[in-house]
Write a structure and sequence with these properties.
This protein is α/β, with parallel strands linked by helices. Helices cover about 40% and strands about 15% of the residues. It folds into two domains: about 190 residues, Rossmann fold (3-Layer(aba) Sandwich), CATH 3.40.50; about 90 residues, Helicase, Ruva Protein, domain 3 (Orthogonal Bundle), CATH 1.10.8.80. It contains 13 helices and nine strands. The strands form three sheets. It has a five-stranded parallel β-sheet with strand order 2-5-8-1-9. Helix 1 packs across helix 2 and helix 12 runs antiparallel to helix 13.
Length: about 300
């Protein structure tokens, strides 16, 4: 019963973000795994369109925060304001209290402001002046960042990157799709008329079903060989952590479900290895922290699906 709902969701988002079905499936898999998504690409590639389309077809509340160098943590979380009538301070919630939050150009804010999202993403709550406030459920952060080579950016630290289950790029459109855009067909014009294709209860049910996707012992052996290789090879500064390993298995489960299977196959692990591991790996000769794609390709080529005798 899950597959028709998922395909309906993929089709609805695909009507807005044209020609990007692989990335849409990965984004949906990230959501179903209860993770957060980091989109890294040049400006104008459709990152904001993807986040807004997902919120629309899911029928979830949506907030967008434009990260700038002068943005403060209180601009995200909220602040306490004194009420003269009651003679008490009252907490005014910030835009982080949304079911889908777009943190646009997150690496243009200072590290202190970036850190304001750490507790929210990990604990699904924020703490202000000793009081904790629960965030809505579901709570899905989609952050975008420009390449670190662009001016005015503050690279995300490893602790922040690790909060994102996946990092993906949309890339340039196919020439046929780009021709439609050049003719004046702007899919974003359709956003206001998009209707939700599933309810919150259906989304919650799909998220719970992810843990029921079967993972065999042989598949777990393959994942552990991948983890061990990143920790032992001199290609890497440091290997994937146990949390990264759990993220890999969780993502493979959700991706398998998106693909219509009730069990994980090696191709599912390979499909999500890049989005899950690229932002968590650093090469021994890489000073930028953005050599992850080459490193993941290296892992896939050198770690056998079936161990050699």
């Amino acid at each position: 019963m899950s597959q028709p709902i998922i395909e309906r969701l993929v089709k609805a988002v695909g009507a807005i973000l044209l020609g990007k079905e692989p990335q849409i499936r990965l984004a949906i898999a990230c959501l179903l795994a209860k993770g957060h998504l980091l989109l890294e690409d040049l400006p104008g590639m459709g990152k904001t369109t993807l986040s807004h389309a997902l919120a629309r077809v899911l029928g979830l509340s949506y907030q967008r925060i434009q990260f700038t160098s002068d943005l403060l943590p209180a601009d995200i979380i909220g602040t306490s304001i004194f009420n003269p009538g009651s003679s008490h301070f009252e907490f005014r919630k910030g835009p982080v209290f949304a079911e889908v939050l777009l943190a646009d150009e997150i690496n243009r804010a200072t590290p202190k402001t970036q850190g304001a999202l750490l507790e929210a993403m990990e604990e699904r709550q924020v703490t202000v002046e000793g009081h904790s406030y629960a965030l809505p459920q579901p709570f899905f952060v989609i952050a975008t960042q420009n390449p670190v080579t662009q001016m005015g950016t503050f690279p995300l630290p490893e602790s922040q990157l690790d909060r994102f289950l996946m990092r993906i790029s949309l890339g340039y459109p196919d020439p046929r799709i780009e021709r439609e855009l050049l003719k004046g067909s702007n899919p974003r014009d359709l956003l206001e008329s998009v209707q939700a294709v599933l309810t919150k209860d259906e989304l919650s049910t799909l998220q719970k079903k992810v843990d029921a996707i079967h993972v065999s012992d042989a598949l777990l052996d393959y994942v552990q060989r991948i983890l061990a290789y990143t920790r032992q090879s001199n290609q890497f500064v440091f290997g994937l952590s146990p949390r990264a390993g759990m993220a890999l298995v969780k993502s493979a489960r959700s991706f398998a479900m998106v693909q219509g299977r009730d069990h994980v196959i090696p191709e599912d692990v390979q499909a999500v290895l890049g989005p899950v591991a690229e932002h968590r790996l650093s090469g021994a000769r890489d000073i930028t922290g953005h050599e992850g794609e080459r490193l993941v390709d290296h892992v896939i080529k050198h770690v056998d699906v079936i161990p050699r005798r």
